[in-house]
Write a structure and sequence with these properties.
With 83 residues, the protein is of the alpha+beta class. It has 2 helices and 4 strands, in the order ββαββα. Strand 3 and strand 4 form a beta hairpin.
Length: 83
């Protein structure tokens, strides 16, 4: 059976320079011990939410996710943003 894989943002304290890694869903464990994550990618994509010790998507990311749910394709237009 094929399992989902996810891009995960790596904390700059573990690996500097805004890295991401590709992780299988079975290896992802929810935790609040890593909050807040330090990465320019977090700052660009997510809004810190201390009440849940986690993050919510920024409006541009939420819009891209809504489009993905509608047509199955994820499209991130970086032309108007410095990502």
């Amino acid at each position: 059976e094929t399992q989902p894989f996810h891009h995960c943002i790596v904390d700059d304290r573990d690996r500097p320079a805004g890295q991401t890694t590709f992780v299988s869903e079975e290896n992802i464990v929810p935790t609040d011990e890593a909050f807040p994550v330090q990465s320019f990618l977090v700052d660009a994509l997510l809004i810190p939410c201390p009440e849940i010790k986690g993050y919510l998507p920024r409006p541009r990311l939420e819009y891209a996710l809504q489009r993905q749910r509608a047509d199955g394709k994820f499209k991130w237009d970086i032309s108007s943003e410095g990502l």
